[in-house]
């Protein structure tokens, strides 16, 4: 019964994670349309890519026993493809300074994954120690992935606008982290469940902020409105001076 329940939760987790990984498509559609990354940060996508790499490797028979964690392989494999695509689009439309920043973050992170994969497959010779190594390093990567929305949260609080924190990204993050937390607990796998202990409350915070600021206009729109009102006031005053008092 527990195995069946874990399998069902794994399928649901796959569906929620697929929606989570697909949600930034709307953001990058906007980036392509405007041909600019604007104030969007690439940090969440780099962290997500690294996390997906680690958990794809964690689910493979090299680390896990057989196909006991097969749901991890499927969804994180898709995540690797999508997050790589987002990063490539970001690099294409970002400034040279931002390109440099993305490379300085992505290259060392991917190098850490490669070293971990080599050590776990060639140096360690049993599944227990392989899972311990890959799961521990993957845990750090997942904590960074779930913690990276703090960048967006900071922007939301500063601008009092949710323009750069898409709602569906926060919603699907909550659903995915909640389901994978349940999956990890059912599997009695602390390393798998641990990242979601941070991811779930972080997603709840984002949803709360969205509810608070969802009706606020972006700061840029407010500035334009103020400028228009000022110009309208000056125009009225000028008209009064030209026409004289009635």
Automatic annotation (TrEMBL):
It is a multi-pass membrane protein. The chain crosses the membrane at residues 6-28, 40-58, 70-93, 102-120, 132-153, 165-186, 192-213. Pfam families: MtN3_slv (PF03083). GO terms for cellular component: plasma membrane. InterPro entries: SWEET, SWEET_rpt. Keywords: Cell membrane, Membrane, Repeat, Sugar transport, Transmembrane, Transmembrane helix, Transport. It is found in: Cell membrane. Its main location: membrane. One of its GO terms (molecular function) is sugar transmembrane transporter activity. Mediates both low-affinity uptake and efflux of sugar across the membrane. PANTHER family: BIDIRECTIONAL SUGAR TRANSPORTER SWEET3, RAG1-ACTIVATING PROTEIN 1. Forms homooligomers and/or heterooligomers. Belongs to the SWEET sugar transporter family. This is Bidirectional sugar transporter SWEET. The gene is LOC120280679.
